[in-house]
Amino acid sequence: MARRHRMVKASPATVWAVLSDGTRYADWVVGTASSRPVSGEWPKVGAALEYEVQLGPVHLTNETVVRHCEPGTLLELEAKAGALGTARISLQLRPWGDHCLVMVDEHPLHGAAGTLHNFGVEAVIQLRHRAMLARLARVCEEEQAHPTSTAATSGGGARHA
Question: What residues contact 146, with CB distance under 8 A and at least 6 apart?
């Protein structure tokens, strides 16, 4: 089970605002080229968004569904990756002074990812989490520093990638 954490120099409210905007998923999720809500009201339980992964000339469309949500503190997702299977991804936020401690926990549920899960796969997930949390921190810290440059001028859907 891959677990990683990062201190984000932004308030938990700012981090939650980014996580709870389904149009910004591609801003912080590594490997995602674009995203858009497809059902429900993100991040309510059952809401889904579609995201595109680009691997050279190949474009894959996948879906992520909200499985559990405690607004402001916890978002649990099921990421569906076609033949690779599905994974549970949990993002937990904790206030830490003026900042936010973000903890991510991911493990495969079904499909090839679950069957082939081993030390090597775990290492790749750890590297992905490190990059994902760095991207999330950058997006949130920019948002904290310049709140009117994104949400106020574009409805929260601005891209920072």
Answer: none
